[in-house]
Write a structure and sequence with these properties.
This protein folds into 2 domains: 57 residues, Winged helix-like DNA-binding domain superfamily/Winged helix DNA-binding domain (Arc Repressor Mutant, subunit A); 182 residues, Rossmann fold. It is built from 10 helices and 15 strands. The strands form 4 sheets. A 7-stranded parallel β-sheet has the order 6-5-4-9-12-14-15, with helices on both faces. Strands 1-3-2 form a 3-stranded antiparallel β-sheet. It has a 3-stranded antiparallel β-sheet with strand order 10-11-13. The termini are far apart.
């Protein structure tokens, strides 16, 4: 019953954006105390934001969400991208992986390779690799960012700057004609540094990212070597990539 009621709360907030505890109590025929418990649970899952006396729905396109939640978003598309990305990896390579959910899925397949060296700012990615692969793993260090299970900041950037890789795999919040963008400066800077120290930069972006632009620029189109997606890029992005000689990989 609680799960169904919380789904009802989200549905109401999608329509009306903000609702008071009192209003929700009347609409769902439960006590205000019950509504408060439901709102607390939804806020812990990063679905809503509590305010004095009520709550509003979060715009997930503009906030960072825990990796365990983003793993569920377009999961089939991300798995498809990870399967395609594997073809670019071979034994004895050094890889940079960002802290994205798509790179996490890619990392789960690295147990097929021997003698890999992997550098990542993703804490869950590093932990999973240590448990499931024989790769040599380095975590960038730096400040641990809330809810992202990632390390960023000065020390992370300095660590990356002292190493080199054959390939870097990065995802993004949006990919448009200006390149790839992210919500936070910290994540954008990590991608920039990975690119500078890699022989080849590969962007993993599912179709939900197409022609979306966010606050922080990460990489321009001319800094990208390969784009892997679950669908063909829209015409404007396809033409831009073709002009710059970017290799495009998607299911045929």
């Amino acid at each position: 019953m609680a799960e169904n009621r919380r789904k009802d709360i989200l549905q109401i907030l999608r329509k009306k954006k903000f609702q008071s505890v009192s209003d929700l109590s009347k609409q769902l025929f439960v006590s205000e105390a019950t509504i408060r418990r439901d709102l607390n649970s939804l806020e812990k899952n990063n679905e809503i934001k509590r305010t004095t006396g009520g709550a509003f729905l979060l715009d997930h396109s503009k906030v960072e969400r825990p990796l365990l939640l983003t793993n569920r978003d377009n999961a089939d598309a991300k798995k498809m991208i990870a399967d395609l990305a594997i073809d670019f990896i071979s034994e004895d390579q050094t890889l940079f992986l960002d802290s994205s959910s798509t790179c996490f899925l890619l990392a789960k397949q690295l147990n097929f390779f021997k003698h890999l060296t992997v550098v990542t700012n993703g804490l869950l990615t590093a932990h999973m690799l240590s448990e499931e692969t024989s790769s040599k793993i380095f975590c960038t260090g730096g400040e641990v960012y809330s809810k992202r299970s990632s390390t960023n900041g000065y020390h992370a950037l300095r660590f990356i700057a002292e190493h080199n890789s054959d390939l870097c795999f990065v995802s993004c919040k949006g990919i448009a004609e200006n390149g790839i963008t992210d919500i936070t400066e910290s994540e954008a800077l990590i991608k920039k540094e990975y690119h500078k120290k890699s022989a080849k930069t590969i962007v993993l972006a599912d179709h939900s990212k197409f022609n979306k632009i966010y606050f922080c620029e990460a990489l321009s189109f001319d800094q990208i070597d390969i784009i892997i997606s679950n669908k063909k890029l829209p015409a404007n992005l396809f033409e831009k990539a073709e002009t710059l000689g970017i290799e495009l990989i998607y299911p045929q």
